[in-house]
Amino acid sequence: MSAGAIADKAADTPGGRYRWRVCAMLLAATTINYIDRQVLGVLAPFLQQDIGWNEIQYGYIVTAFQAAYAIGLLCAGAIIDRLGTRIGYAIAIAVWSVAAMSHALAATVGGFILARFFLGLGEAGNFPAAIKTVAEWFPRRERALATGIFNSGSNIGAIVAPLMVPVVAVAWGWQAAFLVTGVLSATWLVVWLLWYRAPERQPHVSAAELQWIRSDPPEAVVRVPWSQIVRHRQAWAFVAAKFLTDPIWWFFLFWLPKFLHSEYGLTLTGLGLPLIAIFVMADVGSIGGGWLAGRFVRRGWSINRARKTAMLVCALCVVPIIFAARADNLWVAVALIGLATAGHQGWSANVFTLTSDMFPRHAVGSVVGMGGFAGAVGGMMIATFIGFLLQTTGSYVPVFLMAGSAYLVALLVVHLLAPRLDPARLQQSGPELPAA
């Protein structure tokens, strides 16, 4: 979706439409973010042959990315808050742009581990920076839409990568695939630094649009320390859900091309269509999962019943993946995996909403940060485990069994820790600051 298309779509909203061009920039950054991180997954089956790493070593390469991503999630928010959105976002994308291109220089396992580590460190800044940008440019009533638009870049990137990467790699070599995606992020960085300013400093923003952006009444924002949050079972319910299920999504991103190559003999160019089909289904699931919970609420169900029923439906969509490792037909496997990715994305939409169901707005960011860190740690652990498992057994069956059961286990844990999704009662002991 281009900046012009988003602006035209929002043309009838009050106060002008320049803020939607900002939203288009965030969409582009998130799309590039997911293209950059998925290049290795698409090329992995063939790099493994060229460079000679084994399954354990590939697990270590993925683990390096996850470890850095976890560290970055803990640090990125504070850095962006201190330096501001323009410079903070620029630093994050500069780090991941250089890291993405540095993969082209890697010739050993150690080289790929180093490149992946810095890529994870830089990419961790994307979502904190984008969410903060939305808060600066949009009134509260439009933030959900703006966030939904830029977040769709994650699925767009997952679809674009298997389309673009094989073509570039076949034409100019695998190194070119990393260079091209790195150039995309570097180009975005130049445009961002030349073009982005805060709303008050952007000359193209009309007085009416600025008034609309700042139309919310100011409210006090109370900083809630983690020591307050971790005392509540509701926080651990969210953390557990992310820890148990985020690693499955990382498995989909980094191991599906290897699975399709090893089980069905797909060539580099043959991977594109199956991967696109899988991630298009994921996109549908992302929308459908949120719609389903809303549908239940409109029918008069309680938030607790609606949210958990939608999560149960999504969890059940993942269960059939246990048969994918033994599927005789490629497209049967694609359908089972696509259904599972759709279930994950619908699950994820509802899990993120748990935070606003149970916590006040001023604590949601901290809770989401804790959950994101837990999910990255889980992904780091499963990456190493899968590497050893595949090196030892050569079978994906245990991995798909684990994926098929993870969501039902996570839902049970969520229900035990937060049986009614009661709001957490936080002590507001932190200093009050004026809201941005």
Automatic annotation (TrEMBL):
It comes from the Bacteria. Gene3D superfamilies: MFS general substrate transporter like domains (1.20.1250.20). Keywords: Membrane, Transmembrane, Transmembrane helix. Pfam families: MFS_1 (PF07690). Residues 22-422 form the Major facilitator superfamily (MFS) profile domain. Signal peptide: none annotated. It is a multi-pass membrane protein. InterPro entries: MFS (IPR011701), MFS_dom (IPR020846), MFS_Na/Anion_cotransporter (IPR050382), MFS_trans_sf (IPR036259). The chain crosses the membrane at residues 58-80, 87-119, 172-195, 235-256, 276-297, 309-325, 331-352, 364-390, 396-418. Its main location: membrane. It is found in: Membrane. Belongs to the major facilitator superfamily. Phthalate permease family. This is MFS transporter. It comes from Pseudoxanthomonas daejeonensis.
